């Protein structure tokens, strides 16, 4: 079978750190081109400063991986889908829910695969946590996602703009795991968003959700964390504690702790290849819905300005 010719669009941090190695490491794909306005691409691969130019003048591509900020993703995905190309959307899949719905409808119409990728769901501990939790009674859940924005998002002005999600950019990763491992749906009861007075997006959030059986789920997001960083989800059940830490890489159960090698992006690309080969899409917007609800239903507090 011929490899899927893919173009990587948006040659920023995640494209270089994760997408390129995953594509080079997966025989189902060949890197046909890169696209980015202010980047020179990689040796031996055609580079373009816009997706439009690639689609008009470049080598043929079967698929695109959109690694740009979310605010520009809808227009790029629409361009690609109009050409019948399969589309991999980095998380979050869009800046709004309605635009993602529109993309899904367009993908169906043109017969292309659309993949709303949630990389944290492919962390090593997530599938076994989901399997272990499936039959348990959930008593409570605590999500603590506290990191230093200066370390993880230096110079990313888009992340503070409308549609950039602020602290929900990492927080949505936690929600992508929680919506995947917990056996029942959950929804927001109340929340507080803290927004620096000089920024459009929150720097911290405290949210209370509950699942449909009434189990409380607390979420503590903070971008002002220095020192040790936390990406932890702790689930108390009738059979003891299930804890995912390090963003899902480490799973602790009453029977012991397991830590395996990072496999997120190789897992994502294997899934994308399967979707393309089987003519399907995978567009789960449930994590983005919960973030949208947080913006709908939370109280706002203005906090001190944030400067890098
Ligand atoms: P980033 O470093 O700011 O990179 C984004 C890149 O997109 C920039 O390099 C920019 O290219 C490019 N771009 C902007 N508009 C474009 C357009 N119209 N056409 C083509 N390229 C365009 O951001 P990032 O950290 O890689 O994050 C990108 C996305 O991946 C976000 O949605 C984020 O949530 C997600 N993500 C990030 C991480 C992470 O650890 N950083 C992890 C997982 C997922 P130029 O520089 O050439 O202008």
Count of individual beta strands = 15
The CATH architecture of the largest domain can be given as 2-Layer Sandwich
CATH topology of the largest domain, by name, is Dihydrodipicolinate Reductase, domain 2
| Low-confidence spans | none
Name every ligand kind in the structure.
NADP nicotinamide-adenine-dinucleotide phosphate
User: What is the CATH superfamily classification of the largest domain?
Assistant: Dihydrodipicolinate Reductase, domain 2
What does this structure look like?
It contains 9 helices and 15 strands. It is of the alpha/beta class. It has 2 domains: 4-116, 3-Layer(aba) Sandwich (Rossmann fold), CATH 3.40.50.720; 121-261 and 292-303, Dihydrodipicolinate Reductase, domain 2 (2-Layer Sandwich), CATH 3.30.360. The strands form 2 sheets. Strands 14-13-12-11-7-10-9-8-15 form a 9-stranded mixed β-sheet. A 6-stranded parallel β-sheet has the order 3-2-1-4-5-6, sandwiched between helices. It starts with a strand and ends in a 5-residue tail after the last strand. The mean pLDDT is 97. It binds NADP nicotinamide-adenine-dinucleotide phosphate. NADP nicotinamide-adenine-dinucleotide phosphate is lined by residues 9-15, 35-39, 67-70, 72, 90-91, 119, 156, 169.
Task: Jot down its keywords.
308 residues, alpha/beta, Rossmann fold, Dihydrodipicolinate Reductase, domain 2, 9-stranded mixed sheet, 6-stranded parallel sheet, 15 strands, 29% strand, binds NADP nicotinamide-adenine-dinucleotide phosphate
